[in-house]
Design goal:
Elements: E1 5-8, E2 13-16, H1 17-34, H2 39-49, H3 53-77, H4 83-110, H5 113-148, H6 162-166, E3 174-177, E4 182-185, H7 187-203, H8 208-219, H9 223-247, H10 253-273, H11 280-301, H12 310-349
Antiparallel strand pairs: 1-2, 3-4
Length: about 350
C-alpha cells in the first residue's frame, strides 16, 4: 500500500494522499457553508495524518486562502457579504494574527507547541459548542413561550442576545453596517477581530471558527451575513498568514495544492447550499461538527496516558475526522440538491 503515501519534501514526512483529497473537497463544502476556511478541522486533520503541528498550521493557512477567495465571490453574488464590516475588522485581524504566529514560533522553540495548541483547541471547541447549543436551547424556549401565548416567534429572533448589551456601548466613531443591519461602535468589531486574529495565528485557522459565532452573538449579524462576511475576513487573513508561514519555512506547498484542487470545487457547493439551509439549521450543524472535531483531538491528547491504545486511538481519530468531513459534506450536498429541486418545482408550477 506504499503507493497511497506521498513524501512531503519540505516537512520530510510521508502522508496518506487520499486523506488530503477528502479533507480538501469536504472542507471546501463545509467551509463555504459555515463561512470559514475550515481550518478548525484541517489543522488537526493534517496533524493526525502525520504533519508536525507547525507545518499543519502553515499548510492549512496556505490552502485556505485560495478556497476562501472562491467562496467569498460566490457569497457576494447572494448579498451575504458586508464589505464595510470586513474592512473594519481587517485592522484587528492582521495585528492579532502576527502576535499569534510569533507565539507559535516561540512555543516551537520551547518544544511545547503540539501539547499547548491541542489543549487550546479543546478548550475553544468546548466553549463554542456550549455557546451554540445554549443559543439553540434558548431559542426553542422562546418558541414554546410564544406558542403558549398563541403567538409565533418572529423569524429573526435569536436565543442569546449578547450583542444588544454590547450595542449600548457608544464609544465613537459609530458605524452603520447596512448588509448586517447593525449600528454600533467601530471599536466592537475591531476588538472582536483582534481576539479572533490572535487565536487564528496560534491555531492555524482563518479565525472563522471563532469569528463566525462572534459575528452572530457579539456583533449581531444575521447568520447568512455572518457566513459571507467571515469568509471575506478568512480570505484576507489567509493570504497574510500564508505569506507569514511560508517565509518562516512552515508551509508544505505540495499538500496545499492537492487540497486546494478539491476545495475549489467544494467551496462552490457549500456557498450555494446556504441559499437553501438558513438560520438555525446552519448553527446546529456547526455545533455538531465542532463536537466531533474536539473528540478527534482528545483522542490524540490522551495517548501518553494509555500508550497501549496508541495505534487504536490514532486510527479512530483519523476515521473520525475524515468521516466527520465526509458525512457533513454529504449532508450539505444532499440538502442543496433537495433545495434546488424544490425551487425548480415552484418555478415550474408558477
Amino acid at each position: 500500500m506504499e503507493w497511497l503515501y506521498i513524501l512531503m519534501p519540505i516537512a520530510g514526512v510521508k502522508i496518506f494522499w487520499p486523506g488530503l483529497i477528502i479533507l480538501g473537497v469536504g472542507v471546501g463544502i463545509i467551509g463555504g457553508f459555515f463561512g470559514m476556511g475550515g481550518a478548525w478541522m484541517v489543522t488537526p486533520g493534517l496533524n493526525i495524518l502525520g504533519f508536525p503541528m507547525a507545518f499543519a498550521i502553515g499548510t492549512d493557512i496556505a490552502h485556505m486562502a485560495g478556497k476562501s477567495l472562491i467562496s467569498t465571490m460566490r457569497h457576494g453574488k447572494f448579498g451575504n457579504v458586508d464589505y464595510k464590516l470586513g474592512m473594519i475588522m481587517l485592522v484587528g485581524t492582521v495585528v492579532g494574527f502576527e502576535v499569534g504566529a510569533q507565539m507559535v514560533m516561540w512555543l516551537e522553540r520551547m518544544g511545547n507547541v503540539e501539547k499547548v495548541v491541542r489543549w487550546i483547541y479543546i478548550a475553544l471547541l468546548a466553549a463554542i459548542a456550549w455557546m451554540v447549543f445554549h443559543d439553540v436551547a434558548k431559542r426553542r424556549e422562546k418558541e414554546r413561550l410564544a406558542a403558549a401565548r398563541g403567538e409565533k416567534l418572529e423569524a429573526g429572533a435569536t436565543g442569546v442576545e449578547w450583542h444588544k448589551a454590547l450595542h449600548k456601548i457608544k464609544i465613537p466613531p459609530m458605524v452603520h453596517l447596512k448588509e448586517a443591519g447593525v449600528y454600533c461602535s467601530a471599536w466592537l468589531p475591531i476588538f472582536v477581530s483582534f481576539a479572533t486574529g490572535w487565536l487564528a495565528g496560534i491555531l492555524g485557522i482563518g479565525g472563522g471558527l471563532i469569528r463566525m459565532p462572534a459575528l452572530i452573538y457579539l456583533i449581531g449579524c444575521p447568520t447568512h451575513v455572518a457566513v459571507g462576511t467571515d469568509l471575506f475576513e478568512v480570505m484576507i487573513s489567509g493570504l497574510y498568514g500564508a505569506a507569514t508561514y511560508t517565509y518562516k519555512g512552515r508551509t508544505e506547498l505540495v499538500a496545499a495544492m492537492i487540497m486546494l484542487v478539491g476545495a475549489s470545487v467544494g467551496a462552490q457547493v457549500g456557498a450555494v447550499a446556504t441559499k437553501y439551509i438558513k438560520g438555525y439549521g446552519i448553527r446546529i450543524a456547526f455545533g455538531l461538527a465542532v463536537v466531533g472535531c474536539a473528540l478527534s483531538i482528545l483522542m490524540k491528547l490522551v495517548q501518553p496516558w494509555v500508550p497501549q491504545f496508541k495505534d487504536a486511538l490514532d486510527t479512530s481519530a483519523t476515521v473520525l475526522v475524515l468521516g466527520l468531513v465526509s458525512g457533513m459534506s454529504l449532508y450539505i450536498f444532499i440538502r442543496m440538491i433537495q433545495g434546488v429541486k424544490m425551487e425548480l418545482a415552484r418555478k415550474k408550477a408558477a
